[in-house]
Amino acid sequence: MDVIGLSRLSISNLVAKEHLYLYGNYDLIMPHFVDQRHIDYDVGERNGLPVHVGHGSFGDVFRIRFTDGRCSDTKICIKEFTEKYGTKTDSIEEARKLLYLSDTGYVPVCFGLVEFKNNVRNENSFGIIQEFIGEGQTLHRFLRQSIDKVSKADWISIAFQLAHGLDKFHDKCILVNDIKANNIVMYTRKQGYRLKYIDFGLASYRTGRNFHPPSEKLARLRHLAPEVRKGCRTSEATDIYSLGCLMRQINVYGNIKDLLLISHMCTRDAPKMRLSAHATKLLIENIVDE
Description:
Order of helices and strands: HEEEEHEEEHHEEEEHHHHH
Protein name: Cyclin-dependent kinase 2
CATH class of the largest domain: Mainly Alpha
Largest sheet: 6 strands, antiparallel
Number of helices: 9
CATH architecture of the largest domain: Orthogonal Bundle
Distance between the termini: 37 Å
Strand content: 15-25%
CATH superfamily of the largest domain: Transferase(Phosphotransferase) domain 1
Mean pLDDT: 87
Helix content: 25-40%
GO molecular function: ATP binding; protein kinase activity
Keywords: Kinase, Transferase
CATH topology of the largest domain: Transferase(Phosphotransferase), domain 1
Shape: globular
Radius of gyration: 20 Å
Number of strands: 11
Structural class: alpha+beta
């Protein structure tokens, strides 16, 4: 190995050790709070309003920048929660998961939290500052806009990354609990299409969780496993079911028979009969692009 290669390896090892020290133990992770005065919103050239890049039941996402020049070479955004969906505890927990999973390469970089004071209502709201990925295009939008632009090899790569990322999460005892196309963002690199999971508001560590919306609403959330829709706790198997639903969606556009077969094995009615994330990854890796 040449000197440059050895130097890079040493630096990589140092970074890995630093990450393990800072974020390797979930129970010790505590995100820091950024002073609201240290962020500024990007505004549109035409309307002068903050650049809005996303919306969900949690609230809204806006493009921002640090006023002191930090991370000037990285696009960042803030995920602002409504008072209803983002208590201080909820915000901290989601940020903790982003930090804990940062070494997987499948989540945005988290830069901290912001607390917005509301002296009138005496109810503060919160936001997570994180990396803004690509142009903010979700997999949901990508599927509908790229039908004639994506090769079969690229579809297989996207499916592999979805399984690989989930395998890494499960290896660290994290359940996503809400895997769907709108919660994954796409971007491009020289090597091709890349993706990251972006929403961990319902994720859990070392345990499953129950959902408590009205039963008729829960029944309509078809990306959730049938046992979850019936009130059972989430598990690795329920994440796999949701992953299988994504594989089925990809197959609609990619027309890959082997991927459709894998989706069937991920969405079996009996949770114990479903594939693991690791097995799913290996099966996708072995698909031959005919």
